[in-house]
Amino acid sequence: MRTADTVFSHQLFFLMRLTGAMDRLKMNREAWLAFTTVNEWVPAWRYSPRQRTKQEATDFSESVKTMTHWLEANV
């Protein structure tokens, strides 16, 4: 097992790959778009001096909600 292949990760792509549900996710357009947004998150954002716009924050939050619902129903 590679280091990236662990549940102790912030990398959603690798976590999804470990579930074996990536193909199902790709078939759901809304969930896939949310995934691509959420997958951009990195822990370093907490310390970034770049201010996000209200719209960026709203879009990201909605994507997280969409992914949470999809994960609860599919994984």
Provide structural commentary.
With 75 residues, the protein is an all-alpha fold. It is built from four helices and no strands. Helix 3 crosses helix 4. The two termini are 21 Å apart.
List the helices and strands and how they pair.
Elements lengths: L11 H8 L2 H5 L2 H10 L15 H21 L1
Helix pairs in contact: 3-4
Structural class: mainly alpha
How many discrete domains?
A: 1
Low-pLDDT ranges: none
Distance between termini?
Answer: 21 Å
Helical fraction equals 55-70%
- Output the number of helix runs: 4
In angstroms, what is the radius of gyration?
Answer: 13 Å
**Main sheet specs:** none
Give the amount of beta strand, in percent.
under 5%
Number of strands: 0
Q: Please write the string of helix (H) and strand (E) elements.
A: HHHH
Mean pLDDT: 85
- Global morphology: globular
Supply database-style keywords.
0% strand; 59% helix; 75 residues; globular; mainly alpha
Quick structural summary:
This protein has 75 residues and is mainly α. The protein contains four helices and no strands. The chain is globular.
